[in-house]
Fold this protein.
Amino acid sequence: MNPDRARHLGQAPDRLLDLRGQERHQVREFVDDHDEVFYREWVRALFEGAVDDLRAQASARGRQVPFEVFRRYDLADLRDEAQPTYSELAAALGITVATVTNHLAAMRRALRARVLERLREVTASDDEFEVEAKRLLGTRR
């Protein structure tokens, strides 16, 4: 995920998830920190599940176009595809550039909410939740 998109999701650039890179480097000659490898995989799974939740929620609410904008723009690098411009997305989907911007903002907020919901389910206390939310998203709730 590139730094600009990470900022939209509330992540600091030093906390970026490189899901594609993770998959490419699953086979490692030497792993120094097994806990870090486990944590990265846990984070990848958390975000993957949140994206799946977002997709299902968008479909159930008739919001396929906003999700498609999000999928094509924010998830393009995960599929080894070139990231389209807002103008290209607007033309391809028959919407305005302003609508692309609004859809991305809405889907990013919704993804953040899904991530926090999933995080709440797997943390044992409010303190643990706050620490992990800050680590994942760079901010408190």
About this structure: Residues 65 and 78 are 19 Å apart (CA to CA). Residues 11-29 have pLDDT under 50 and may be disordered. DSSP finds seven helices and no strands in the chain.
